[in-house]
Amino acid sequence: MPDESSVDRHNVAERLTLAISRLNRRIRPVGDELSNGVLSALSSVKNAGPLRPSDLARIENVAAPTMTRIVADLENRGLVEREPDPADGRSFLLRASNSGIATIDQARMARTTRVLQLLADQSDEDIARLAHALPALEAAAANRA
């Protein structure tokens, strides 16, 4: 294993970008599965809700018009429910419906299955190395800089 001070961060970032891009293309939604953006928004509603659409847009780091389209899609699919905002009569809050929660679980299972298929030929040693890298990847993914 290389000394941490000798690691070329640019090279790591470049290789990681390429690997993530390729993996993402291989596990992208198929058929009528939710897109990554819509699934992420629904997951945020489930985990942090009930939320105003403006708060959801901020969490998801998208513009208000984009979130308006996402919310409309989620509502049309019956995956979120509106409720009045008790603090602001002009606004509403979003809550994940039972169908929305089930859809999140199904989408995660489908994507996990595709990743398992991609990893099927990897050695136990390679899987252990991936497992060792997960905390750093999860921390980078959670960073909202």
From TrEMBL:
<dbReference type="InterPro" id="IPR036388">
    <property type="entry name" value="WH-like_DNA-bd_sf"/>
</dbReference>
<dbReference type="InterPro" id="IPR023187">
    <property type="entry name" value="Tscrpt_reg_MarR-type_CS"/>
</dbReference>
<dbReference type="InterPro" id="IPR036390">
    <property type="entry name" value="WH_DNA-bd_sf"/>
</dbReference>
<dbReference type="GO" id="GO:0003700">
    <property type="term" value="F:DNA-binding transcription factor activity"/>
</dbReference>
<keyword id="KW-0804">Transcription</keyword>
<keyword id="KW-0238">DNA-binding</keyword>
<protein>
    <recommendedName>
        <fullName>HTH marR-type domain-containing protein</fullName>
    </recommendedName>
</protein>
<dbReference type="InterPro" id="IPR000835">
    <property type="entry name" value="HTH_MarR-typ"/>
</dbReference>
<keyword id="KW-0805">Transcription regulation</keyword>
<feature type="domain" description="HTH marR-type">
    <location>
        <begin position="9"/>
        <end position="139"/>
    </location>
</feature>
<dbReference type="Pfam" id="PF01047">
    <property type="entry name" value="MarR"/>
</dbReference>
<dbReference type="GO" id="GO:0003677">
    <property type="term" value="F:DNA binding"/>
</dbReference>
<dbReference type="InterPro" id="IPR052526">
    <property type="entry name" value="HTH-type_Bedaq_tolerance"/>
</dbReference>
